[in-house]
Amino acid sequence: MQIAKALLVLLGVWLLAGCGAGDEFADIKQFMDEIDAKPKGRIEPLPEFQPYQAFAYSAGDLRSPFEPPVEVKPVDPSKKSPDVKPDFDRIKQYLEQFNMSQLAMVGTLSQGSAFYGLVRDVRGGVHRVKPGDYMGTDHGRIVAIDETAIEMIEIVADGTGGWVERERTVSLGGGQS
Fold this sequence. Notes:
By secondary structure, this protein is an alpha+beta fold.
């Protein structure tokens, strides 16, 4: 008997659920019919785009605006001599692999009568230098160190196949001249 009651309840629910199914989508069908009856629109053609023009960057060989300017003292013609040339047989020191713009004087150190300069490279390492040491890519030999600067003599090509000596100063805090 319980099965019969359950079937009867199920049949009633099914009939009630099916009563409104025919009218449920009538308004959507009417709306779709109205839309279909309207005249079809015309899609505008895509606008014509200009082809991409690549930008030729011509300032790549100039100094970065994020680096301090380097003042290079003019070469004295009297310093030009056939005897001036770098020693290519000499074993390079560690700081000679860096451009001078990548090196900065960060302090000094004295031990007894010896006076040293402290130079930081671009990798963050701090190195102790003394007169006679070399640094920079232009064969720069350190000639003097004081509390505020390192004085150097660089040997650079003069553009005519010869070499000239050039003075350079690396100031405390990274300034160079």
